[in-house]
Amino acid sequence: MGRLGLLLCLGSIVFAAGCQTHLGVKPDGEGDYINKGDKARIGVEYGLPMVQFNLSVTRTLVKCQDENNRTDIRFSTKVAAEPHYVVGERFVVDYESLSSWSKITGLDLQTYDNGTLKSINASAEDQSAAIIGDVVKVGIGVASLVSGVPLGPMGMLPTPGEWSCSQQTKDKLDEITITKDALEKTTKELVQVTNTVTRLESLAILNALSGGDKTALAQAKVQQSKLTKQVAAVDKALASLLAYVSVKEERIWPEKVGSTQLNADPLPENAKFLKDLFENTPSNTETQGAEGGAATTQALQKNEPGQAAQPGKEEAGGKKDVFLEKLMTSFQLRGELMPLLKTSEQSPGSTSYPDPKNDKRTGLYYRTPIPAQLLICRVVSSQGCIVDDDFPKAFRVNVMAPQLAPLRVLPLTNGMFQNNALSATFRENGSLATFKYEDKAARGKVLSETVAASMDSVLAYRGARQAHKASEKAAKQQAGLDELDADIARLEKQKKIAVLNAELEGSDQDTAVETARLNARIALLEAQRKLHELEGE
After folding, report:
1. Quick one: which of 57, 121, 338, 434 could link to 423 by a disulfide (CB 3.0–4.6 Å)?
2. pTM
3. What is the count of structural domains for the chain?
4. Who wins on pLDDT, 30 or 114?
């Protein structure tokens, strides 16, 4: 082997050593993944899921007085939470980082409809049905938290009559009680009639109905239809009455990955709406509106445009609204999303990502969800929720929370003489469903094949060079022949044109002269072409 062959062989190996690639993934908004002026962000985007709740909080006045007609204001706070998964963190994949001059690379990335990662280099089946039981352990959680309003100073009993329900509010509560009793009674009657219909229809299937049973079944169905309409009407009337003494707020929480502390206090305008159900002195009954919240509307209209009413601020008389402050205190709700299992040293929900420059583990980021609990309570202290034996003050719902889990990475580095592949599928909650990694050939085998291929290339170089010289000569020969063929074809066309012109103008003598001249020129070119062909042989 000559020096040139040795250089070629070594060069092929040296160049191969510089062909290491890796899957480049970074958090969206870092480095080259930030908008720079009018430039677009680089990479393919995918998201990691986080659990989010549709929260509904309904506060309802349920009591004004105790058995001795002393002021005893009680509110029922109904909390409902429906969890679902949304995109919490966003990452971008720079697929070009996998490619190089000696690599053939493909990347297939799929996402769910909500934008979370579904699969990479794999065909993923629909996992929606499989995660229904994994998303929520207690479906839609609902709980009622009963709380009282502390009217008096700390450690003192409230002063009777200082703040109490207005007469109109008391009348509404009485109507609510009567309507609830009517609804309960009608519902019981409907249940009994429905049981009768079910029993008689079972006998009818067996052809065991007597004449009296058939009459009873017809009457029971008529009664069932009538009671069903009555229950619907009474339930609608009850909902209308409850709207007078209650407010409902809906919110979505958490809004971002790192949020674990919930503040579910009511909006100031809703607290004022409920405050308008009460009066300070008997003379204040004249200022109450026909509907609950009328005074709220009047109070809000006194504020500057766009300025919300603030509880506890001084009113027109220069006095602090102490009662509204006490209402707001009694309405306080705090919550926390906490893991049920101890996680690794990395803090839950951490968004501190490894620096790609100092961390070789570059690849696909994901989080495996862990069991967690959303705890909402009315009484909050530095120790968290306090629950006594008198009233339930805590609401709990168990979920699987991806954002509380440590961040993990699936590295993919394609090194020298390495031909590997990675494929994975993920459930909608972010957990890993399937995973496959394979190195399609051992590096030693690939290296030996590379050296052998390089040696073959060196041995084939001389033959290729000789073939190249021969092809150059043949190409020049063919170029000369092509040029002569083109001239001959051009003269043939000129001869045909001369004949056509003669037919049109009627000059046969001129045509004969021109045709003879062209024939002589064509004969000369054909002779030259024959000489070129003989030289090529």
Report:
1. 121
2. 0.62
3. 2
4. 114
Determine contact, residues 25/91, Cβ cutoff 8 Å: yes
Q: Which of 99, 96, 94, 106 is nearest to 46 (CA)?
A: 94
> Are both 468 and 510 inside the same structural domain?
yes
Alpha helices in 276-395 (DSSP H): 294-301, 322-330
Q: Examine the domain organization and report whether 37 and 99 are in the same domain.
A: yes
Count the helices and strands in the chain (H runs, E runs): 9, 21
| Single-letter amino acid, residue 449 | E
CA dihedral 278, 284, 288, 293 (to 10 degrees): -40
Among 275, 375, 251, 284, which Cα is nearest to 328's? 275
Indicate the residue among 401, 436, 471 that finishes a domain: 436
Among candidate residues 54, 62, 74, 78, the one with its CA nearest the CA of residue 266: 78
Q: Are 424 and 435 in contact (CB under 8 A)?
A: yes
DSSP tag of 383: T
For 92, phi then psi, to 5°, come to -125, 140
Contact predicate 450/417, CB 8 Å: yes
Question: Considering only CA atoms, which of 147, 167, 143 is closest in space to residue 62?
Answer: 147
Handedness of CA 180, 186, 190, 192 (dihedral sign): positive
**How many whole angstroms separate alpha carbon 98 and alpha carbon 92?**
14
- Quick check: 317 pLDDT over 50? no
**Segment 125-143, tens digit of pLDDT:** 444 443 433 443 333 455 5
The domain containing residue 471 runs over which residues?
444-536
One-letter amino acid at 328 equals: M
Residues 256 and 381 in one domain: yes
DSSP 40: P
Q: Where are the beta strands (DSSP E) in 415-470?
A: 420-426, 432-439
Nearest-angstrom CA–CA distance, 158 and 197:
54
What mean pLDDT, rounded, does the chain reach? 73
pLDDT digit string, tens, across residues 423-480:
889 998 898 889 888 765 444 444 445 445 544 554 455 565 666 666 677 777 777 7
